[in-house]
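Model: Ready when you are.
Researcher: Fold this.
Model:
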Amino acid sequence: MAKTMDKCRLCRRAGEKLFLKGERCFSQKCAMVRRPTPPGMHGAKKVRSASEFGRQLAMKQKIKRIYGVMERQFRRHFEEARKTRGIVGTELMGRLERRLDNVVYRLGFAPSRALARQLVSHKSFLVNGKRADIPSMEVQVGDVVSVKEEKREKTYFKNLSESIANRKDIPGWLELDPKRLEGKVIGTPSRGDTEVNVDPQLVVEYYSK
């Protein structure tokens, strides 16, 4: 994953917001508001159409950057998705959405996936009452993700309960209880549950070569 200072460049290169910097992405400081052109001195010039392989590679990179996973981990998710009976692209996105760090982010417990990974690694959460400190852990339907009792006394989590009370953007496959600082997985992610426009079929085609 790129350093924080480079994340805005990744959005500009993709040509759209990838929501890599939390609240900044929703403000006027967002690079896609201030300078929505590809990075580099020739960024404002017309870009030639990419080849089919180029489009496939760009989509793979885009999805990796959104979820903050490295190539080996991403390939592992793909191979696991390919073993299922479902549509490979849909299964791939479902696996990425069900990562614990992403669930923490989608529940509003962190303003970005990067901070969500950090909070999970710092042992701030429980899954079904048990310690969970592996960001890539895959949650299942019925699992309950909650903030550890001792962590709730921290200033960050004290303020969090109020800030997420009126959230309207919780995906339908998750259920949030802001007062108890916990969320429940009540379903499986659908194709349209990602925040940005992605086409996982291009990734399937990329790895099928």
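Researcher: Now this one.
Model:
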Amino acid sequence: MTYYVGMDLHSNNTYVGLIDETEKRLVNQRLVNDLSLILRVLEPYKENIDAIAVESTYNWYWLVDGLMENGYCVILAHPAGFQQYNGLKHSDDKSSSFFLAKLLKLGILPKGYIYPKEERQVRDLLRKRLMLVQERTMHILSFQSLATRNKNLSFSSNEVKSLDADQMKDFFENDYLVESAKATISMIQHLESQLSLIEKVLLKNPLIKPQLAILQTVPGIGKYLALTIALETGDINRFKDAGKYASYCRAVESRRSSNHKNKGHNNRKNGNKYLAWSFLEAANFMPRFCKSAREFYEKKSRQTHKVIAIKALANKIAKACFYMLRDNIPFDENKIFGTTPK
């Protein structure tokens, strides 16, 4: 007898539903989020469990990793890919867990990607770096605004980064303004030191160095954009083609139409927001360093709109990076723009 398990995971509990080949419900239980307890409930059926479906939520790491380390085949269910029948009169955690188990049994469960644990930890550190960079930018803008409002002084971002908290009395006479400016500069200095430490750790990682070298051949992609693209992409072979990869990067439009009429949008948030940001950044930088990219952007801008032109360029860069990572080849301007390299 083969068994199938569905788990509806929440922040503090997990609903476990286990069925057999005839869809008879054998386990029907809500458990606190304790891996040892969940393993104990599954133990009597372990030898015959075909797979376990865990719905992809923000906190799936500990459960999926723990189950896999204990010998279970785990499938991460992609919640955007399935939906229970809208006409149901009643739906709850119990029905959701057995719904996952049934989809698993039928072989039609939409699957999410389980990023390898070791690489995932590096990727999450990079995401932390991005969060700190954004926070640093917020404080820089705050100081620039304070100086402009009160003293009509102008500072570039690099000038703000080089300031020291003790210098604030030289710019402001009012004690309250001095304390506000000192707090802002102190936060920028602290964030700078933390970013420096994180960046040293990230750049030492041997797993991603080959991808970094390839991605940095793209005009406008530096080491940290390359790091983001490499780590957020993971195994490039999980994408069937360049179009699927561009879609995952949110570099294609989301549209629903019928009889040539716009009926709205589908799920715009499907895919990876960090890759979407990375390729938009690359699209904004590339025209500065690549004449063909600048000509493409300017032509597209005249035909449509600057926002659409940047998105179109981001789409081209994403597809180019797909082939570069898949085939281990450097950037080729002629292939992406169909022009002779300048």
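Researcher: Key takeaway?
Model: The chain has a mean pLDDT of 90.
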